[in-house]
Amino acid sequence: MDTWTFGWTVALIGMGGTMLVLWLLSLLILLLKRIFPYKSEESASPKR
Question: How many domains is the chain built from?
């Protein structure tokens, strides 16, 4: 494997790995949003 082939291979694997990690993080954030839904201050306090 010459230098250019190795460089392109590492670059493509690095970019693919980055995209995979970002996709997994977005799934984790969506899961956490479903487990802990956002409640605003106004709706959390009792109304009089």
Answer: 1
